[in-house]
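Batch job 17 of 40 flagged for manual review because the log was empty.
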Amino acid sequence: MPAKTGQQYIANLRENPAEVWMRGERVEDVTTHPALKGGVKSVAALYDRQHDEKVGGEMVFPSPSSGDPVGLSFMVPRTVDDLLTRRRMMTHWAWVGCGMMARTPDFMNVSIAGWAGAAEYFGQNRPEFADNVRRYFEHIRENDITLTHTLVNLQPRRESGVLDKLDEQVALTVVKETDAGIVVRGSRVLATLGPLSDEIAVYPTRTHMIGPESWRQAFSFAIPNNTPGLKFICRESFDYGRSDFDHPLGSRFEEMDCIVFFDDVLVPWERVFLLGDVDMCNNYGLATQSTTHSGYQVVNRCVVKTEFILGLAQLMADTLGSGELQHVQERIAEIIIHLETLKACMRASEADAWVNDYGVMCPAQGPITVGRALYPTTIYPRLAEIVQLMGSGNLMALPSEGDFNAPIGPEVERYLTTDTADARERVRLFRLAWDVACSAFGGRQVLYERFFGGDPTRNALLLYRSYNRDGAKERVLDFLHSS
């Protein structure tokens, strides 16, 4: 099947149901469940975008295997133009979710494409694993598979440093090897989009490296979500079943985060990509540059999200008539600074892009690392705060859609109208601002941006250890010793 439609995406979820649990109950159909159907609809809209005549030409390319149109996020870039072409596609998808959906399918697609471009790396572990990676990438490309992933083991205790100390009673562990494949048991977090996806990729992350004693937790594989023994445990949904007017983001973009339990799950050998080699698992991200490709998608989404916040903030000022106030202009200018900083990171990563050992064009890692580091720690929490400060009491004096349709509606219309907007448009806008910065959905956005790329402290340690500072030191020494 080439690039799929939203209807085909929904049909596949119905026909291949995973074991999904929410609030103590088994979810029978994620496509109709009140807490999940809004997110399903939004992901379906992404796939329909591939067939939109206005942008369809920027969403697909001919498959190297079949010639059929397949999603551009599956392209293995060989030139800078390929990177730019793929970024245009990712930008279209990011705008469908206003940057609020962090796990649109292109995130995983570019990651696996990075693996496939560097498949020889996986063959160092076992030669057949390189073929497994190539065949799996072709499978997800030709069938437009929707992927989630899970990277981090749950831990009964935390240790300092960048190495995890794993407990085999909790961590996902290989408990047996059979002729059919490996059997794994344990738990992982955090599978965002888990209930709304077709398959799950399980692999290590550079921010949670493992020690030599953890060889039984050293692996990479991918399996369908309806594999026996695989269970997704959802957090509470932020889609409360309210209208798009009352909760414009939460009603649409609930992508859901999950804990994943593996109860003696069989992973067929053809779906195994790494096994038992701790060093290869710890180093695969840098060696294949797959994390840089996914980071490129992340920073691009952050650009879109920041531009969305900029537009929202300006509309808030226009609606309240506060745009001439100096402190309002200062806050909007701060958003502009953040937006242009992220754009500069993207452009620098493209200007300094390079071809890795496997012939894949890769964005420069430094600007991507900086963009990813700034957004969770400095930029997005501040953006949410700016929306709160600009909205002030207007974010609490918010009638619901029902109030406009009630007997009190005419009074709501009369008293909440401003010089530039009628009451309904004012309330609609500020309910959006509420959902960005104050609601449970908005709180999850701040928390998710803070930690989805890993613990900021660990990330800083890894950056410190990997960044070459010798040139900077030499220049200082040259100055000190100059006459």
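Reviewer: the log was empty due to a logging misconfiguration, but the result itself is present. The chain has 16 helices and 16 strands. Unflagging and moving on to job 18.
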